[in-house]
Each structure stands twice: as structure tokens, then as C-alpha cells.
Amino acid sequence: MHAVVGDRLHVHGNVVGHPERVGVIVEVREASGEPPYLVEFEDGHTCLVFPGPDAVIEHPAGRARTASRQRKAKA
Q1: Distance CA 21, CA 9 (A)
Q2: Tell me, what's the pLDDT at 9?
Q3: pLDDT value at residue 69
Q4: CA torsion angle for 48, 53, 58, 62 (degrees, to 10)?
Q5: What is the pLDDT of residues 15-73, one digit of tens each?
Q6: CB proximity list for 8: less than 8 A, separation 6 or greater
Q7: What are the boundaries of each domain within the chain?
Q8: Which residues, other chains included, contact 27 with Cβ-Cβ below 8 Å and sequence gap of 6+?
Q9: Which class for 20: exposed (0-12), middle (13-18), buried (19 or more C-beta within 10 A)?
Q10: What angle do CA 62, 27, 37 make, to 5 degrees?
Q11: In the chain, at which end, N or C, are there fewer CB atoms within 10 A of the end residue's CB?
Q12: Following DSSP, what letter does each residue of 3-55 receive, concatenated?
């Protein structure tokens, strides 16, 4: 999992009745883009998150294309 500031973290509810949570990544602690991330959720709560398998990173449209090109260039 790789992210940059401004990406969105979407945590799916993994138990019936638990809501999904969506927040904006405001700080990435590792230079490689790996977790943990400081995330500000829609309810205003900010916390340090080590995303599990129930979470996905949503990149803004322009960032997704750039990241894809960068991965191809490294290969």
C-alpha cells in the first residue's frame, strides 16, 4: 500500500452494522509511502492509521495516472 498526502483512505466496514469510514491522508510517515498514515476522517477525528486488508487508498484522478507511469518507468 502506497499513498501521498491528499489521497483518501476508505476503510470498509468489516462487521455487519459497522459503517464505512473515509478520510484524507494528511501525513505520510514513511518516505516510501508505506503506512502509517495520519488521517483526518469526515467526522473531524484525526488519528494515526495502519490500514488493514479492509482498507483501500483512493488516488485523485491525475495522481493515479502519474503513479502508474512512475511504476512502469521503474520496471
Answers
A1: 8
A2: 96
A3: 47
A4: 110
A5: 888 889 999 999 999 999 999 999 999 999 999 999 999 999 999 876 654 554 444 54
A6: 22, 23, 24, 25, 57, 58
A7: 8-74
A8: 5, 37, 38
A9: exposed
A10: 95
A11: C
A12: --TT-EEEE---STTPPPEEEEEEEE-STTSPSPEEEEETTS-EEEE---TTE
Helix (H) or strand (E) holding 64: helix 61-74
User: Residue 58 corresponds to which cell in the numbers above?
Assistant: 483512493
Of residues 14 and 40, which shows the higher confidence score?
A: 40
| pTM, entire model | 0.75
C-alpha to C-alpha distance for 31 and 53, rounded to whole angstroms: 21
What phi and psi, each to the nearest 5 degrees, are found at residue 64?
-65, -40
Q: How many angstroms separate the Cα of 31 from the Cα of each of 6, 7, 14, 18, 50?
A: 15, 15, 29, 32, 15
